[in-house]
Structures are given as structure tokens and as C-alpha cells.
TrEMBL record:
One Pfam family hit: HisKA_3
GO molecular function: phosphorelay sensor kinase activity; protein dimerization activity
Keywords: Kinase, Membrane, Transferase, Transmembrane, Transmembrane helix, Two-component regulatory system
CDD domains tied to this protein: HATPase_UhpB-NarQ-NarX-like
Designated name of the protein: histidine kinase
């Protein structure tokens, strides 16, 4: 499956079967075309098809048109029935934008039928009265059907993202409630501890027995406070970086965005709090790419150098708006999370070309010289 895109793997065996039948028909045909030229043309068509699956825009169009040209040559030299197999390039065209990429490919399809019909039957429009016309119609319609299916899937994913955000808001509200509970319970407990400690200090010389009782009461209050903190903290979930990377994989699956991850081996062992803050920042950055970037490619890269873990999230999309809305793009929340663990975030946009690079920098050794 070398060079075969991940989001196309479910159709791998179907494509394999189609090309196997194509090769069989080419080898069984009784025309005078040499077997060397047939096999060479088949290999070139297969190579061009793989290119159309992996690339977009002009390279996609060029590969599709060259593939259609080879099919036209084979249909003229062997059998016009080979035009039916132009479905492979029609199907691949459903993964690019309509204007101008799909339209150029469709012009190539029509010209292919006209050329073969003109040479094989002596009339450029003879195919309109044969079985080839319905096939051409389906080949022209297929990219739009594929785009409608992908659009529906994209809307379903958007709905799932919105539901997940609602779920996150509910969890955030729950955390706020826990914070209020901590403040209310521990605030009262600390006030009691302060009062009893001051009282024990005053009674130490006058009534040591009562001072001892007051310190025992302080100890009980501390034990109670520790228990309250453990109960609250146990409700908070540890968020792993690996889980967020996998979430990104499912987020971009089926879209026009190619999602890559490199350097995962560079991620060291982190404390739960530190890993959770970095994972949430990555989540926010990937969600930002999904919602706003309109990119073709998103690349997440990790590296570890000079006791600093660097995570780069790079896309080739439309870039940041001229007037940056910190709340709208998630910059502020990422900055706050990274600052919480003594890290920082940087947003860079190239002067030439498109895209944004989000760099998350996390010191592995804190200011006190301790490992995070």
C-alpha cells in the first residue's frame, strides 16, 4: 500500500480489482498493439492514478488528463470499451474543488469520447447513440455525487464537534463548580485552622493541656481538608497527548485535509497536569485548523532539544485574519494553558505563501530544577 493514501484504504481492494480486470482485458485483446506498449501504458495509468489520489490542484489535473490521454490511445488501438474504465479518474476528481479542477478533467473526458468516436466510428458524436453515452453521463456526474457525500459527512463531523464542545462546556462548568466547592470548604477549614493555631500559641504558656487539645483539633481539620482535596481532584481526568493525536486523526478523516504526525518518540514522561495542559493546547490548535484553516495539509511534529519539548502544528491554509480575534481562534486559551505549566506558545505566518505554524514550547526542567 505504498503511496496509497490513508483515507482511501477502504477502497484499496476495489481499485485493485478494477486495475486487475483492466490488465486482463489489455492482455486478452487481439489487436496488433505490442504487449510491451500495453503493459507500459497500464503501468503509467496506474502511476498517474496514484498521483491523483495523493495530490490536489494542478498536479491532480495534469495527472488526470495524462491518464485520460493514455486511455484514449488504448481505446483507439485496442477497443473503445476501455473508455468505461475512465471511471477511475472521474472518481478521483471528486476529491478536488469544482472550479477549475473538476471542470478541466471533465472537458478531458468529453474530448476522449469525441476523439475515440471520431476515429473508430467516423463520427465524433456517434457515442451519443451507443451504450457509451450513459457511461459518460455517469462519469461526469460521479465527482459531484462524491462531493455531496463528503459534504454530508463533513456536516455530520461538524455536528459531532459541536456536541463535543457542548460536552466540554458542561465539563468546564463542572470544574468551576468543583473550584467553588473547594473555595467554600477549604476556605472555612483554613479559617478554623488559623483561629485554633493562634489560640494554641496564646495558651501554650498559660494552659499547655488545652493548647495541646487545640493542636489536635488543628490536626483533625488538616486531615479533613486533605480528604476533601483528594475527593475533588480524583474527579478530574488526566488527558493524554496520544489520545488527542488520535482524536485529530478521526477529526480529519474523510476530509480534504491530509494529517501527519512525526517525532512522537521525542515526547518524554510528563506529569499528569503538564501533559493535560499540553494535550488540551494541541486539541485547541487542531480544532482551529479544522474549523478555520481550509488547509490541504496539517503536520504535527515533536522534537526535544536543550531540555525543551517543542510541538509544531503547521498547516498550509488561509492563515490568520489581519485582525486577530484571540477568543475566536483559540490563541488566548492556548497561551493560558501553556503559561500554567511554565511554557509558551508562538504563532508564525510566512511572509510568502499560506499557512500558520503554532509552536508550543514546554521546558522539561522547571525553574526549581525539578523534572516536570
Amino acid at each position: 500500500m505504498f503511496f496509497y493514501p490513508r483515507n482511501q484504504l477502504k477502497l484499496f481492494f476495489l481499485d485493485l480489482s478494477i486495475f486487475a480486470f483492466l490488465l486482463f482485458i489489455l492482455l486478452q485483446d487481439e489487436s496488433e498493439l505490442s504487449y510491451f506498449i500495453r503493459i507500459l501504458a497500464f503501468i503509467l495509468i496506474l502511476f498517474l492514478y496514484v498521483i491523483t489520489l495523493n495530490f490536489k490542484k494542478w498536479l491532480h489535473v495534469l495527472s488526470s488528463l495524462l491518464g485520460i490521454l493514455l486511455f484514449t490511445f488504448l481505446a483507439i488501438q485496442t477497443s473503445p470499451n476501455l473508455l468505461i474504465y475512465l471511471f477511475v479518474f472521474s472518481d478521483a476528481s471528486g476529491n478536488v474543488k469544482i472550479t477549475p479542477y473538476i471542470l478541466l478533467t471533465q472537458i478531458g473526458l468529453v474530448l476522449s469520447y469525441v476523439t475515440v468516436s471520431s476515429i473508430s466510428y467516423g463520427d465524433p458524436f456517434a457515442f451519443l447513440t451507443t451504450m457509451f453515452f450513459p457511461f459518460l453521463f455517469l462519469q461526469l456526474a460521479l465527482p459531484y455525487v462524491i462531493r455531496m457525500i463528503k459534504r454530508t459527512q463533513s456536516l455530520e463531523r461538524d455536528l459531532a464537534v459541536v456536541n463535543k464542545e457542548i460536552e466540554s462546556l458542561i465539563k468546564e462548568e463542572e470544574r468551576n463548580r468543583i473550584a467553588r466547592d473547594l473555595h467554600d470548604t477549604l476556605g472555612h477549614t483554613m479559617a478554623v485552622i488559623k483561629f485554633k493555631s493562634e489560640l494554641a500559641i496564646r495558651l501554650m504558656d498559660q494552659d499547655s493541656k488545652r493548647a495541646k487539645l487545640e493542636m489536635k483539633a488543628v490536626l483533625e481539620e488538616i486531615k479533613g481538608a486533605s480528604k476533601q482535596v483528594r475527593e475533588v481532584v480524583s474527579e478530574l481526568k488526566h488527558i493524554r497527548i496520544q489520545d488527542e493525536l488520535l482524536h485529530g486523526d478521526s477529526l480529519f478523516k474523510g476530509t480534504y485535509i491530509n494529517y501527519f504526525i512525526t517525532g512522537q518518540h521525542s515526547i518524554p514522561q510528563l506529569s499528569e497536569v503538564t501533559e493535560s495542559m499540553l494535550a488540551l493546547s494541541i486539541r485547541e490548535a487542531l480544532l482551529n485548523c479544522y474549523k478555520h484553516s481550509r488547509a490541504d495539509r496539517v503536520h504535527v511534529h515533536f522534537s526535544l532539544k536543550d531540555a525543551t519539548l517543542t510541538c509544531e502544528i503547521k498547516d498550509d491554509g488561509v492563515g490568520l485574519p489581519q485582525e486577530r480575534d484571540l477568543d475566536g481562534t483559540g490563541i488566548q486559551s492556548i497561551q493560558e494553558r501553556m503559561a500554567f505549566v511554565n511554557g509558551k506558545s508562538e504563532w508564525n505566518q510566512p511572509t510568502t505563501g499560506n499557512g500558520v505554524t503554532i509552536t508550543l514550547l514546554l521546558p522539561i526542567i522547571d525553574k526549581g530544577g525539578n523534572a516536570l
